[in-house]
Amino acid sequence: MKILSIELTNFKPFRDVRLPTEGHLPDGLIIIKGPNSTGKSSIFEAVLWCLWGSNAVELTNEELISFSSSFCKVIVEFEVAGRQYKIDRSYDPASRLSVVFYQDTVNGWKRIADGSNSVESKLEEIINLGLRQALNTLLVRQGEVALIANATASVLRGLLVDVYNIEILGDMSGHISHLEDDLKTRIGVLEDKYVRPEVIEKQIEDMDERIEEHKATIESKKAEIEGTEDLLKDVPQPHLLDAIQDMSSKLERKEVQLKSVKKTRDSYLEEAGLLTAEEELVQARLHTLSKNEDDVNARIEELSEEKSKIEREIGAIRGTERDLKDKIETLQEAKDVTICPTCSKPLTPEERDDILHEYHDTIEEGKERISKLQTKNKKLSGEAQTQQKRLGEIQRALQAIGQIKRHQNDVADAEAEVEEARNDLEKAIAKLGVKDLQTLLDKHGVKKLGELQRLVETWIAKLGSLKNEIESINTMIDSEKERISEAKKKIEEMDEIGSQIEDLKSLHEHSQYVRRKLVSGFLADYVIQKRLIGIIRGATNPYVRSFTSGQYSGVDLVPTPGRGRGGAGLELQIQDVRDNAIKKTSQLSFGDRTAISLGLRLGISRTMSAIRPLKDSPALSPRVRCVLLDEPLGGLDSARRKSVVQNLVNDQSFRQIFLITHTDVQGWEGVPVVDVSKTGTSSEAKLVQSSDM
To answer: How many CB atoms lie within 10 A of CB 292?
Structure first.
């Protein structure tokens, strides 16, 4: 990968910058120079943000916008394997983030990806490098060289593991460990499901025994069915019994009705003076009562006439008595002259006394006559009452005879209905081939037709129940056979599961061996010690010799065992030609440590495009042959800085090297320089040749 151009719009301090203004950025070393706080590092941040987004710069999109603007935009054009690409990334809080990936074709720029995730995936596909590795190889941050110079053995080893993605082997160990756990879980699940085949075979034997028991039960039930069917053959059909029962019930109801109407009719016999309701007797009684009624009515009329005569006579006598008493009173009240009350003639005292005596005698005779008449009237009244009572009895008897005649019609109707019901019942019974109902009941040993019906219903219900039981037992037999079939299949399944369990257990043992013996040992022994260290040493030593003017001839990375929490590590050892000694970084001056650490860091970046951690690994080498060095020269004196720059100018390992520095260096004549300066509130950057400055 080579960066061809960088275009910044409202990105941090830069308002509108294009590097270069025309054409493409050159190969080799490019120095980015300028005072502090002018925005040199922001150029690197712009490149990283354009390629990978805000995760690459540890800032939010809002923090990247220039203070004098409301949006920012960066376009980076680059070349990979002879093909040109560009990424256009912009951010506006109103319309959010926009990022598009283009490829240059004969017909112009062609969009090949759109959106953050899509662009990042496409970029990794093209350059074979993800963001995490890019930050550890493409970019050398401020202070990173000092960090390497002061790194402990475990930290240094961890850096190499991260840079070369060697943790994939650690991940592999983790995956194998997960595989072991998964295998263990699968074995446990299979063992939970597993049932020994002999146990299932015993279950099959039990099911076969149950089937035989069910078959024996069916035979027993069939025998019961035959016996019940024989019983049912000898009895009338249920519907015939029901019909006979209905007819019998009807006859009983009609007989009860007949008895009731007879009882009602006979309740009038006594009052009518009859013993039976025979027609001849009823008519004779009616004739007699009618004649007696006439006689009694005639006698009552005679008695009434006689009583009337007596009452008239008594009334006349009492009238005479009142008249005589008035006359007596008149005669007795007269003093001197007495006038006859009858003829109005004067009376002598003697005549008056005679008349008074005559009047008193007449009154007494009248009283005697009244007494006799009253006695006779009383006798007549008694006879009249007797005759009236007799008349009432005769009339009630006549009414009773009328009721008897009326109810006799009801009795005749009821008798006809009884006869009809009896005939119907006898005909129905005759169809059954028996003489009468009692014969039918005696034949089957019951006393009532209802008992015979219930007996037949019981037999029919028993027959249905037996058939249902046989059907249910057959269903159970089918179910047992189905379970036997399933059990036989389960035996095959258990054989398969048993085989799977054995295979998984074997695989579990092998995975444990691979993880414990092969992967971990390979990571420690082969990758770190035998292969990678040699490659890094070969790439680093030329830088170390050049950066230290030959004082140090080379470096070595020596594996160290794990100590406490730090784990295994790599100790940096340096060959000092002047002192003819092998030294540790702690024995070097700060400037020497810085120069050697910078050499190691460049050696690491140099190897990234040339090797793969594993020879036969399917992973591809990163297509990145450029490096961004952010202020790596701090801590170096003028001579060392000159040596570094001269070496980088002549370095053919990288196609492009961007070096940020604010320190004055020598030996950069003819080197392209991006001059960064502050103008007002914004910064400017332009590409010039060092001889132009």
So the answer is: 16
